[in-house]
Amino acid sequence: MAKILRNAALLALVTALWCWIMSALHGIWSFGIIRDYLDGGVVPLYPSMPVTYMTFFMYATGAFMVSFLAVFTLCVLAPSKFRLAIVLGAWLIGAWMGAANISFLFQIDFGTTWRTWEAILSLFVHGLFTPIWLFIGLWGTEALTRPLRKA
Questions:
Q1: What are the φ/ψ torsions at residue 8 (nearest 5 degrees)?
Q2: What residues have CB less than 8 Å from 119, skipping those under 6 apart?
Q3: Fewer beta carbons below 10 Å: N end or C end of the chain?
């Protein structure tokens, strides 16, 4: 049982870190570069707080937490043949959570009556970069977790 818990924790940690990094990088692209918040912009909810690269990593921590808990819990409970589906699904869910957190932070500048999913679709999703981000994220998750899934 200890080996299963250790392996699930390592698998969850690798998946969660990759999800967190990729979500923050997409936020940097979507809001920092495309929406130009890194060029002297401020966080709308906190007008005295300047937007830095660290801002995106702070607000993408939801991606880490959600994907870690999902992978750890499901890898302990589910048979090992389902691990690939678990880590890929958890990465997608975590990435959506990171996107929601980052989009919510900036949505007040674009429309205070938006629901969270409207902010994600209008502000976070980019026609070219988002599919590339999803491909690299899922491919990286598969590649980084391959040795841990086989154990």
A1: -65, -40
A2: 100, 103, 104, 106, 107, 110, 111
A3: N
Q: Which residues contact 50 (CB under 8 A, 6 or more apart)?
A: 40, 41, 42, 43
Residues 23/99, Cβ–Cβ less than 8 Å: yes
Domain count, the chain: 1
Q: The pTM is what?
A: 0.90
Query: pLDDT tens across 132-143, in order?
Result: 999 999 999 999
Regions of the chain short of the pLDDT cut 70 = 112, 116, 151
Q: Which helix (H) or strand (E) holds 23?
A: helix 2-27
Domain that holds residue 65: 2-150
> Tell me, what's the pLDDT at 8?
92
CA–CA distance, 17 with 30 (Å, rounded to integer)? 20
Let me know: does 76 contact 7? Beta carbons within 8 Å: no
**∠ CA 60-66-67, rounded to 5°:** 95
CB count in 10 Å sphere of residue 124: 24
